[in-house]
Design brief:
heterodimer; A: 347 residues; alpha+beta; Elongation Factor Tu (Ef-tu), domain 3; six-stranded mixed sheet; six-stranded antiparallel barrel; globular; B: 127 residues; OB fold (Dihydrolipoamide Acetyltransferase, E2P); seven-stranded antiparallel sheet; three-stranded antiparallel sheet; 5 helices
Chain lengths: 347, 127
């Protein structure tokens, strides 16, 4: 099994280690609920070095990214910013979702998911070739995520000034960006492994709670953030995955991978909806959802530590109404549909 | 292994049983609660219901997954741990004491002998 550079730190801290896409990662360090609540109310630190970092090289990086992604990098051109986008195939299907960071000097960095690292490397290399853009797979980098309403307190000595959401701050030690996967204020720190250990030790010795993958999943679900491979994959388009907003058609002259097909699929009947139930029991991924006039499927479901009820995403028809039902352990239960961002819709 | 673990009998599906003067208390092992993680729901059997050996009679659900809890013995459910409905986390903090699930009055107490002793269970759970 592969391991991140911080593997022994997780074990020292009592991490319950599991196999995650071939990586030995901490599921939790005792209680995923406590870890979840710590991020919502205070601060926590995640090791997400299993994710893939690709640094671009060459003169035409911007042209390459404008063709590669449906979201338009021009939006953040020349600014110290980050941008979220799915990456599509020529049929408009989602290959992965990722964040592009501007590193300065007309250079960009892509961070994408763990399970897709090898596939992404070959896809990126293939698409980049005609642009004469090099793809440098930084497999020896550490990625830490410091997340929570008090995260600023622990990062401020490393950044000169406050940075707003989706900003990037490049220091000698690390790239620090105000991005994350929790719905909270937070920072992602990308640096070489030795510096990664230093950051980790600094936070942990200041009593920042380490957070495992289990809480990472409940945090992202509550925040309405899709998980690639679970809530969307190659069989989906951004339109039926609640991320239609990433398709930037403002520049009529710009071509990008999947554009033509997406124009036809714009009026997708399916969408990702949030749901919650007041009943006991957790409706999980794969469960069938019935609504007036059709049926759909749960893509992610969990017990929400913040709202103390069953929540999830389901792919249903646009006109699914407000209420649906499902069968859980031979019992019919009622679902209420809502916006996928539960931090807003259940507030 | 803790003292309270030593005197228990186990199923390979991670239930434990303790004979207390002919009534058998049942719960899930420490190993099982570790595997499940934070427990959020429990469904318990009805008092007075008759259950058969290896029947799924209760359900324990964590944030991660739901799992059946089997009765190690045939008999009648005589008591359930009502506290678990509102405070299922007791199972995580005290699997062998406060976190018990139900009590069975067995038809045949000798069925206990078919269960694993703590050493055999420990070996199994370490595999």
């Amino acid at each position: 099994m592969k391991a991140t550079y911080l593997n022994s730190k997780h074990k020292d801290l009592g991490g319950f280690m599991v196999d995650f896409s071939g990586w030995e990662m901490p599921l939790h360090y005792g209680s995923q609920l406590n870890e979840h609540n710590e991020v919502r109310t205070n601060v926590g630190i995640f090791d997400v070095s299993h994710m893939a970092v690709f640094d671009l090289d060459g003169e035409k990086q911007e042209d390459f990214l404008r063709f590669l992604l449906p979201n338009d990098i021009k939006k953040i051109s020349g600014q110290n910013k980050a941008m979220y986008s799915p990456m599509l195939n020529y049929e408009g299907g989602i290959l992965d979702d990722l964040i592009v960071y501007y590193l300065g000097n007309k250079s960009f960095r892509i961070v994408s998911n763990c399970a897709t690292r090898e596939k992404n490397l070959s896809w990126l290399s293939k698409i980049a070739e005609p642009f004469d853009v090099g793809i440098d797979f930084k497999s020896d980098y550490s990625i830490l995520a410091l997340q929570g309403p008090n995260s600023h307190k622990f990062i401020k000595s490393h950044i000169e000034k406050d940075i707003s959401k989706f900003s990037v701050h490049n220091t000698d030690d690390a790239m620090i960006a105000s991005t994350g996967y929790t719905g909270e204020l937070g920072y992602e720190i990308i640096c070489d492994q030795e510096k990664g250990i230093k950051f980790w030790n600094e936070f942990v010795s200041n009593d920042v709670q380490p957070i495992g993958l289990a809480a990472r999943d409940t945090l992202r679900l509550e925040a309405g953030l899709n998980l690639y491979g679970t809530d969307m994959d190659q069989t989906n388009t951004p339109y039926d995955s609640n991320i239609g907003w990433t398709i930037d058609l403002n520049d009529k002259d710009r071509d990008f991978i999947g554009k033509k097909v997406l124009e036809e699929k714009k009026d997708s009947k399916k969408i990702l909806k949030g749901f919650y139930t007041e009943e006991r029991g957790v409706l999980r991924g794969g469960a069938e959802v019935i609504f007036d006039g059709g049926s759909g499927v749960v893509t992610s479901g969990t017990w929400s530590p913040t709202f103390k009820k069953n929540i999830g995403f389901c792919r249903v028809d646009k006109n699914c109404g407000e209420i649906g039902s499902a069968v859980l352990r031979d019992k019919k239960i009622t679902l209420k549909f809502c916006n996928t961002n539960f931090l807003e819709s259940l507030k | 292994m803790s003292d309270n673990e030593k005197n228990l009998k186990f199923l390979d599906s991670h239930e434990w049983a303790r004979d207390e003067d002919g009534v058998v208390t049942v719960g899930i092992s420490n190993h099982a609660q570790e595997l499940l993680g934070d427990i959020v729901y429990v469904e318990l059997p009805q008092i007075g219901s008759n259950v058969s050996q290896k029947d799924g009679v209760a359900i324990v659900e964590s944030v991660k997954a739901a799992s059946d809890v089997y009765s190690p013995l045939t008999g009648e459910i005589v008591e359930i741990n009502e506290k678990l409905s509102d405070n299922p986390e007791i199972i995580n903090s005290s699997p062998y004491e406060d976190g018990w699930f139900f009590k069975v009055k067995p038809q045949n107490i000798n069925e206990l002998d078919e269960m694993l002793d703590s050493d055999a269970y420990k070996k199994l759970s370490e595999e």
